[in-house]
Amino acid sequence: MNSKRRALLGAAICMSLGSAVSFPAFAADKPLTMGFSQVGAESEWRTANTVSIKDAAKQAGVNLKFADAQQKQENQVKAIRSFIAQKVDVIAFSPVVESGWETVLREAKAAKIPVILTDRAVNVSDKSLYVTFIGSDFVEEGRRAGRWLLDKAKSMPAGDINIVELQGTVGSAPAIDRKAGFEEVIKSEPRLKIIRSQTGDFTRAKGKEVMEAFLKAEGKKINVLYAHNDDMAIGAIQAIEEAGLKPGKDITIISIDGVKGAFEAMMAGKLNVTVECSPLLGPQLMQIAKDIKAGKEVPKRITTEEGIFPAEVAAKEFPNRKY
Ligand code: AHR
């Protein structure tokens, strides 16, 4: 991806326009207060996302109330209720899982506080419970990973290609969507078979632990690892090496995010490809929050523009990486 495209990150807006929103009038000279509930600090991606949001708030003069949910939905619900009680101007959050949000979002709506979803979507039948969503197309990320593997399969030895899958957090949008997108694409090649699939909760430690179990159960039968994020892939790489195998060679490794750690692994020949998922959502989030409070019409979904980086381009791209 060239730098112009990257600069346009987020400017690639899916203009499925939401309806004009009406929230209490807001004095433009008063700093906007935003309550933000973050998933946690489970990955290199998440750390970069938190930095992006905090930095952008500072730059935009937004008074940010930040709460870390430590990967627990109950903590996010508590944080949102506390933001409502504090009468913040806007609530934004990255939901740890997709379901179970109706009640608290109805409370925010009753308090006339607009809600912005960032990074992960929610599964609610009443779409008016949030104003907009800013983030990636996770299904497309899964498809990109699948398409890369379809192409790679052409040069792999004849016979079944056995895949193990490290899923993200159970019930989270990226875990559900990345699995669906990948499966949708690989089903066109019957040689590609997912023989094990388990959650690694998006963390390095769990990625390593689950990969150890996969290796114990399947050993040298494993040809490909598909990890729903780079951190789990990096943990799995350690497990593969400890099992006396060569990651990136004996086992082809595909992951998602495009963090610096993944580029380092690719440059060391241990990871074959990473699909980009940008965490740099802060500036867009602050702008959209201001637009909503100014009564402007905003799109219902704002999709970030992303690419895919195979190991062959890692060294050239590494100096451009921002996270
Ligand atoms: O929701 C985005 C995902 O969450 C990222 O891929 C992962 O690294 C993070 O924990």
UniProtKB/TrEMBL annotation:
Subcellular location: Cell envelope
Protein name: LacI family transcriptional regulator
Family: Belongs to the bacterial solute-binding protein 2 family.
Origin superkingdom: Bacteria
Protein keywords: Signal
GO MF entry, a single one: carbohydrate binding
Keyword field contains Metal-binding: no
Organism: Herbaspirillum aquaticum
Cleaved signal peptide residues: 1-27
InterPro entries on file: Peripla_BP_I (IPR028082), SBP_2_dom (IPR025997)
Record's keyword annotation contains Signal: yes
Major subcellular location class: other
Pfam (any one): Peripla_BP_4
Location of the Periplasmic binding protein domain: 35-297
GO cellular component, one term: cell envelope
